[in-house]
Design brief:
The chain has about 210 residues and is α+β, with helices and mostly antiparallel strands. The protein has helices at about 15-30, 65-70, 75-85, 105-115, 200-210, and strands at about 35, 90, 95-105, 125, 130-135, 155, 165-170, 175, 190. The strands form two sheets. The protein has a six-stranded mixed sheet with strand order 6-7-3-5-4-9. It holds the Pfam family Prim-Pol.
């Protein structure tokens, strides 16, 4: 059943087989993925990439061509993670889903409020001090002229500029469970994906906006 094997609770480093299983679960949902760098717990570098002073250790793709590389092909995904068993999992946004990325306190408060109100949350993940809400994408791939932007749009180059609410959409990505975090623990699902339609982004935004001011 889609969603069942996915990680629910953060732990000390995921087993490689668990990572492959999760990646294949994402592919079954139609969510493309590609390998990401991993944080290092010892030595002079904080990230497995070759960049000196990496600004986002373990939270970016291995390849600069990640947008073209990301796939749902089970054979290719299995090959990648057999070759790089400790690679993190990167999910491009703005294709099947967008993601609201908020500070943990705001995210957990919003999640509790949505549960109390009986409002569907969609998939929700915890990545250390951030909580990620997966919502329906607002991107229109068939006609890019119809795509609209907003001040919350977030891309990899603006991580330091937006400590509050970040809206990952076209040309961005998120780190997905069970990826390793710099703390030594792993990302986890608070509400795992189950194949149901994703919630409307503006409805979820109503819950998050005031908490992230």
């Amino acid at each position: 059943m889609v969603g069942v094997p996915l990680t629910r609770r953060g732990r000390r480093r995921a087993h490689p087989k668990q990572t492959i299983s999760s990646v294949l679960e994402y592919a079954a949902l139609g969510w493309a993925s590609c390998p990401g760098a991993r944080p290092l717990q010892s030595g002079s570098r904080a990230c497995s990439c070759d960049r000196v002073g990496c600004p986002d250790p373990g939270a970016h793709p291995l390849s600069v061509a990640w947008q073209m590389q990301a796939t749902t092909d089970p054979t290719l995904l299995t090959h990648w993670w057999q070759r790089e068993p400790e690679a993190n999992v990167i999910l491009p946004t703005g294709r099947v889903f967008d993601v609201f990325d908020v500070p943990a306190a705001a995210g957990l408060t919003a999640l509790a409020g949505m549960d109390s109100a009986g409002s569907a949350t969609g998939p929700v993940a915890a990545n250390g001090d951030r909580v990620l809400f997966y919502v329906a994408t607002r991107n229109v791939a068939e006609d890019e002229d119809e795509w609209w932007s907003c001040p919350l749009d977030f891309g990899p180059a603006t991580i330091d500029e937006m400590p509050g609410l970040r809206w990952h959409c076209r040309d961005s990505y998120v780190l997905a469970p069970p990826s390793a975090l710099p703390s030594g623990r792993t990302g986890s699902w608070l509400r795992p994906p189950d194949g149901r339609p994703l919630p409307d982004p503006l409805r979820v935004l109503d819950w998050l906006a005031d908490l992230c001011d």
